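call fold(seq) -> tokens
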Amino acid sequence: MRSLGLGLIAVLVAAAPCLADCGTCDKTIVEVAAGSEDFETLVAAVKAADLVDTLSGQGPFTVFAPTDDAFAKLPKRKLKGLLKPENKKKLTAVLTYHVVPGKVMAADVVKLEKAKTVQGASVQIKVADGKVQVDGANVVKTDVVCKNGVIHVIDAVIVPGGKKKDVVDTAVGAGSFKTLVAAVKAAGLVETLKGKGPFTVFAPTDEAFAKLPEGTLESLLKPENKEKLTAILTYHVVPGKVMAADVVKLREAKTVQGSKAKIKVADGKVQIDNANVVKTDVACTNGVIHVIDAVILPQ
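ret:
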């Protein structure tokens, strides 16, 4: 375990300096990660778990490395708790769950359905539309070669034994749907969307709501406009669990609100009415979320 741990840190650190354009690298994973501004939280966590020496070993290791932005998606209380000395064992388990023994390049990763980690459990690997996900986290950069392995950069922290949440709790935990969650509460739809379902939710981000004309959101959140708000929110929900691979085959989809949303696929991109789908297949216990960059409105 000591050898494996060193390898993980080495892979993480060595990947940092070479993250720009490095086909080969004479630095370990730990050295690369430490040299990058994108992995400050990861490096701090590796130090807190006392894995630096371990992860600077010979390896080779394959590290799915979460960026600082990925760590920022975690609730602040949870991240702060993980870094406490009394939670060192749990932190170590989380970090080693991001490491796979051996040097697995992207061309090989896409051929896998799962991979056993240093932590002991296996991560699930999914490939769709040319994109790769590891336990739901998107791989945003691949094949950062290090002296003792390779780093693939991911946009979320993955957790061993993590349990899926329902649509509402998933939105709350993401941190990028604060306005949507507030609207769902104002419309009295929390219990509905926490129900059995399944539901397919086209979820607008906070930035998407910010695009609405000034004063529109404030007006919608008023008690007297609850019916109109409910209509808009339910227009973003389609009955059933419709994964991205099925969405792209449709031209329209009937929503819970009753109207049909138009679906358009062009140049590999998907649009729902006037909104672009920017992230797909966020699995929940009672359905699936597809993230969109604009609020769509029923006619």
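Confidence is low (pLDDT under 50) at residues 1-18.
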